[in-house]
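Aggregate trends can hide what the representation actually does to any particular protein. In the encoding step, the backbone of a single protein was reduced to a row of integers, each denoting a local shape. The record that follows shows the chain in one-letter code together with its fold in token form.

***
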Amino acid sequence: MNAETDITLLAKPGEVFSYSNDGFALLGRIVELASGQPYTDYVHQHILEPLGMTRSLYDGERLLQMGDVTELYSYIDGFDRVEHTPGWWESPCMTSAGFLRSTARDMGKYAELFFGNRPDLLSPESLAAITSPHIVTGGDGRYYGYGMMVQPDFHGRTLVEHGGNIKGVAAYFTMIPAEELVSVVLNNITGGPTGGMTLAGINLALGLPVGEHRVTLPPVTVSDAKVDLMLGTYQSDEGAKIEFVRDEDGSLYAQNPQARLDAKAVGDAKIEVDVNGDPALAYFSDDGPDGFQRVFFGFRILTRVEPKQAEEESATEGAAQEA
């Protein structure tokens, strides 16, 4: 606990990885201070315009004036139905954390940076730093570079990618730079299997089974006692929450704020969760007599919360939503 900020750190800087939108917002401010320009102006001048990304922009008002712009949709009641939910989110202080609107064609132009074809925009040294493994993420051999996820051995190739989503949209950008191979999927709904769809494109190009996963774990039998150690509610300070539960028939499932998700134990400290068709692995750590204290899920570290605390926070969230 830091007495000055009343914040409990997950670990010392550089020891663990947990994705942070606030961190990317801070990086955007650093760009502004270093360049003397507003962040959006800097990105347009130094990336979008030189690459000819003419359909990529931050300005929401200008977006509405452009033709052939998508409508936004959302899943309702888990993944049971879909509704039209117009209105693009705006958050000026978080612009650098994921508010660029783009197209698959423009993102293909962006990939030129990672193929090393534009040293005038991105130096070889910076490119190497961005796409090199710096810190392990979960327990599946994947790492984080500088702003990109890196898997050094996907069938003998280095896979570089990133994804994200906010209300009404989801995006995933996957590539094998050494072969100038890129797959981009932009969905006008949050919660679909966007990451799996981009990987399917890579698999097809490589002659692999279209449903090949990033990580395939061998089948194992996990005892009920080991599974019990993983059960419970975990959440992050950013608001991400997941609960691992046994059903009345003994089957395992995960519950997040949006939906109940099928799940299965795939190791003594691993659970695979089916997120609307996309497999997502949860890695548990810091085990004790009462269970694991942390889980790495959704590229974030979530810590166990006591049942009473979880109930109080859920009640608070419900009151806030009603307000």
